């Protein structure tokens, strides 16, 4: 009877322990769904958000609804992309809480052909494009989707913005494209939220009056910027000053010399806290000059900007950069089809700097370019954004440019001036280039016009000087019309010119620091495909059998030692007193 009571008591205790353990596990899972953290042990900190992104998410006032159109049975690369997007949005939700709602949607699921076409049209109107897939048979490694939409659509603060999740940079393998896309996920989502969260759209002024590029070659530039900013044109020759209401100004390919008053307007705009994007060349060189003659002389424009830029810490040299890493041009013989030949005057710029403006960026296309020199200037930090390759050189003005160069082989040892800067970022508290140079009468006149002359910046500001020719220009044809900035029609390649432009403007106008997220880089750690196929069965067996074997060994040891501990010993017969 006593044994039965002890047995019942042990069973009740075991049941209570099981119930308590189940309750603890349930509570832990519930709490983990709301509060969870982790340690990022990856070398590149791929799972750690940057501080500007964290600040943005913590300060969200409205609810952001994010629809991700990556749902379905996709190829392995897109499945990896699915998980990367899910992990990134989960990390956003950890900080923003219920201010972030995301869902994965297959927009064409359950629809017939007519319905699918309508969905494609509706999403196109919202900026969401379709990407075709090569359909495979359904098997263990196949997929059945015909198309996909590598986009997310964000609704926030009364606005809606598409986010392209998977780009197609040229020259990269599928695995490299996925890694490139993963590295930019944080920036793309944070950038979209930041843009929709800003109460006022930044204002940009495109400066004219000194022969700046206008017309059909700037159509893409002048149509792209208004999508993100308020863009105005300001004639420098017909304004008393550049309004500080503009967050940044663009001076793009001037060809007419600047006068003293015009330079003073630019100087005071900068010293009062403005930001400037310069794209200027010192030599007059254009491919159009070869249309009627096989050669021409590249002569100086004489823009009269040397004194101004020198005081800020930069100089545009009177030379042309020649580079073995270049973009070919088409040359026609006897009326036939154009043949492509290397053209050293069109450097193909590879952004290798760690700065967020150019980090993870593809090649940038340029035309006739001048090299830049940085000048030691107290308090001004210089960062080279774009430069020529290892095999480059410069030719001083006047430079004779001739098509006959195509007829002679060029050797690497001839190009002995490597890494010539062609785009530099300058940051700090600038000093006026007119310090001590203006007559007292002129200063009194400025005061009477309520234009305060300042000697130094009160707070740090920035400018970007680019001497890579035609970097912000677009091509055009009578057949296709205006082509995209960075598209080279002779090879069909897309270069990152437009990304460079938008990143420059964003850095100059946005003080949130969200652009810092572009500095992330996810390193590829690829498997040996040949070895993976050969050892596939072995690793499948190990992955299935080893965990089961470990559990069985643990259970056997547990039962063995438990039996030894609780095994009852036979009663010893004691002799009677």
């Amino acid at each position: 009877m006593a044994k039965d009571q002890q047995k019942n008591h042990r069973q009740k205790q075991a049941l209570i322990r099981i119930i308590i353990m189940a309750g603890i596990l349930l509570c832990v899972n519930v709490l983990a769904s709301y509060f969870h953290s982790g340690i990022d042990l990856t070398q590149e900190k791929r799972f750690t958000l940057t501080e500007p992104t964290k600040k943005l998410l913590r300060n969200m006032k409205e609810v952001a609804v994010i629809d991700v159109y990556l749902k379905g049975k996709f190829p392995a690369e897109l499945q990896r992309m699915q998980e990367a997007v899910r992990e990134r949005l989960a990390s956003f939700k950890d900080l923003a809480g219920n201010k972030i709602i995301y869902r994965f949607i297959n927009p064409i699921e359950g629809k017939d052909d007519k319905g699918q076409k309508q969905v494609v049209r509706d999403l196109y109107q919202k900026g969401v494009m379709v990407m075709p897939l090569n359909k495979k048979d359904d098997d263990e490694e196949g997929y059945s989707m015909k198309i996909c939409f590598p986009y997310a659509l964000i609704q926030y603060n009364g606005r809606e913005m598409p986010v392209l999740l998977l780009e197609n940079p040229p020259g990269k393998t599928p695995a490299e494209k996925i890694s490139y896309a993963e590295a930019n996920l944080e920036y793309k989502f944070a950038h979209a939220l930041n843009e929709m969260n800003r109460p006022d759209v930044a204002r940009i002024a495109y400066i004219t009056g000194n022969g700046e590029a206008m017309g059909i070659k700037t159509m893409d530039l002048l149509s792209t910027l208004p999508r993100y900013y308020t863009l105005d044109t300001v004639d420098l020759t017909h304004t008393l000053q550049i309004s500080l209401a503009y967050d940044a100004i663009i001076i793009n390919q001037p060809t007419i010399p600047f006068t003293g008053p015009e330079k003073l307007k630019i100087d005071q705009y900068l010293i009062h806290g403005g930001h400037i994007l310069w794209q200027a060349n010192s030599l007059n060189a254009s491919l159009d000059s070869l249309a009627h003659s096989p050669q021409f002389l590249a002569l100086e424009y004489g823009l009269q900007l040397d004194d101004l830029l020198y005081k800020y810490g930069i100089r545009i040299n009177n030379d042309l950069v020649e580079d073995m890493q270049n973009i070919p041009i088409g040359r026609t013989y006897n009326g036939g089809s154009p043949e492509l030949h290397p053209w050293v005057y069109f450097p193909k710029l590879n952004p290798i700097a760690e700065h967020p403006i150019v980090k993870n960026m593809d090649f940038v296309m340029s035309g006739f370019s001048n090299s830049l020199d940085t000048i030691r200037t107290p308090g001004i930090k210089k960062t080279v954004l774009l430069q020529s390759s290892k095999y480059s050189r410069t030719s001083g003005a006047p430079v004779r440019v001739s098509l006959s160069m195509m007829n002679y082989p060029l050797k690497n040892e001839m190009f002995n001036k490597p890494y010539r800067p062609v785009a530099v970022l300058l940051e700090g508290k600038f000093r006026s280039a007119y310090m001590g140079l203006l007559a007292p009468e002129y200063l009194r006149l400025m005061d009477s016009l309520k234009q305060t002359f300042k000697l130094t910046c009160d707070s740090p500001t920035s400018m970007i000087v680019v001497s890579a020719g035609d970097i912000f220009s677009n091509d055009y044809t009578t057949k296709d019309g205006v082509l995209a900035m960075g598209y080279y029609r002779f090879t069909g390649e897309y270069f990152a010119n437009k990304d460079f432009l938008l990143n420059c403007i964003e850095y100059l106008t946005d003080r949130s620091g969200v652009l810092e997220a572009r500095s992330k880089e996810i390193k590829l750690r690829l498997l040996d495909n040949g070895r993976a196929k050969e050892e596939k069965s072995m690793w499948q067996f190990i992955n299935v059998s080893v965990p089961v074997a470990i559990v069985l060994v643990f259970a056997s040891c547990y039962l063995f030692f438990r039996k030894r501990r609780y095994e009852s010993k036979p009663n010893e017969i004691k002799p009677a007193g």
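DSSP finds twelve helices and 28 strands in the chain. The two ends are 29 Å apart (CA to CA).
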